[in-house]
Amino acid sequence: MTGMSDDVLRVGLVGAGPWAQAVHGPGLAAHPGTELAGVWARRPEAAAELAGALGATAVGDVDELISGVDAVAFAVPPAVQGELAIRAAEAGRHVLLEKPVADSLQSAKAVAHAVDAAGVASLVVFVRRFAPETRAWLEQVRAGGAWAGASARWLSGALLGGAYSESAWRQDGGALADVGPHLLDLLDAALGPVVEVLSAHRTEPDLWHLVLRHEGGASSTASLSMRLPMRPTVTDVAVYGDAGYLELPGRATPAAECYSALLDDFTALVRDGRTEHPLDVHRGVRVQQTLDAVLRVVEGR
Predict the structure, then answer these.
(1) How far apart are CA 277 and CA 46, in angstroms?
(2) Of 237, 252, 267, which closes a domain?
(3) Which class for 278: exposed (0-12), middle (13-18), buried (19 or more C-beta within 10 A)?
(4) Same domain as 212, residue 168
(5) pLDDT of the residue at 3
(6) What is the Cα–Cα distance from 232 to 227, expressed in whole angstroms?
(7) How confident is the model at residue 1 (pLDDT cuts 50, 70, 90)?
(8) Which of 66, 103, 109, 141 is least surrounded, with the fewest CB atoms within 10 Å of its CB?
(9) Domain harbouring 91, CATH code
(10) 88 near 104, Cβ under 8 Å?
C-alpha cells in the first residue's frame, strides 16, 4: 500500500471530460495536500490538453499512470471505473471514485472487495455531502429525533444541452444513474438505510418517481429528471414528522469547494493510515444496491 510522498499525495487522474476539467483536475492541482501527478484518458489529446492547462503530465498508458502515483482519482463512465479501480487498488493505490461506483451491483462489490483486500483508502465523490450546509442540515436532522418521511426532487435540463449532454453513459442511464445516487445517498443519510423500493416508475422525459421504505419504518419519495427545460435546476430535499419540516437549504457551496473539503478528508485518511469513512467505497455499494433495486422494480424483475 502506498502512503504519501513527502507529505503530499501524488494523484493520477483517469479521465479528461467536462467533470475532470471543471472539478477533479483543478481541485487536485490546487489542494495543498495533493499533487496532480499525471492524467490519462481514452482520448490522448484530451489528456494532453487538460494536463497542459494544469502543469501536469499526460500519460499514454493507464498502468504507467497507476504505477507512478500514490492514489488514483476517477472521472470516467461507471463501466470503465469499475474495471480500472480494481486494477488501481490491487496495485496498492488509494482511490477516489465517482458515483455510481460501477455499472452493476456485482461490479461495485468487486471494487469494494479489491479495496478491502489491498487495505487502501477510498472515498466516493458524493460531492454535496461535503458542503457545509449539507453537513449542518444532517446534524439538525439527527438531533431532531424521529422523522416520519422525506421528499426529494432533482429536475434539470442537463441532458438537453451543454457539456454533460454529450456523455453516452448519462444519456443511457438518465437521471437515475447520474443524479440518482446523490438523492438516494441524502435520503438514506437522513432517514436511515433504505430497505425496500416500494414503487418505482419511469415516464418520458426521463422522469423517475420513487417511493422508498427505510429501516425503522419511515418512507421517502424522490422525483428526478435531467430532460426537463428547467433553469435554474430544481433541487430540494426535506424531512418531516413530529418535529416539523426541515429543508436542506439549496446548493450554496460550489462543487469546487465541496471537492476541496473531500480532499481534506481523503488526504487525512491516507496520512493517518485509516481506511474507514462514512463515504468510502462501501457507501457507494449501499447506494448501488438501491439503484439496482429500483431498476428491478421498473423492469419487473
Answers:
(1) 32
(2) 252
(3) exposed
(4) yes
(5) 60
(6) 13
(7) low
(8) 109
(9) 3.40.50.720
(10) no
Is the link from the previous residue into 249 a cis peptide, with omega within 30 of 0?
Answer: no
Whole-number Å distance between alpha carbons of 120 and 276: 10
- Residue type for position 286: R
Q: Is the pLDDT of residue 118 over 80?
A: yes
Residues 119 and 156 in one domain: no
If asked whether residues 167 and 105 sit together in one domain, one would say no
Total number of residues shown for the chain: 301
Q: In what order do the strands lie in the sheet containing 122-124?
A: 34-40, 9-14, 71-74, 94-97, 122-124
Do residue 173 and residue 194 come from a single domain?
Answer: yes
Is the bond preceding residue 205 a cis peptide, omega within 30 degrees? yes
Co-location of 219 and 116 in the same domain: no
Lowest mean pLDDT of 3-12, 46-55, 225-234, name the range: 3-12
The number of domains in the chain is 2
- Residues of the domain holding 63: 9-127+255-278
Instruction: Say whether both 195 and 113 belong to one domain.
Output: no
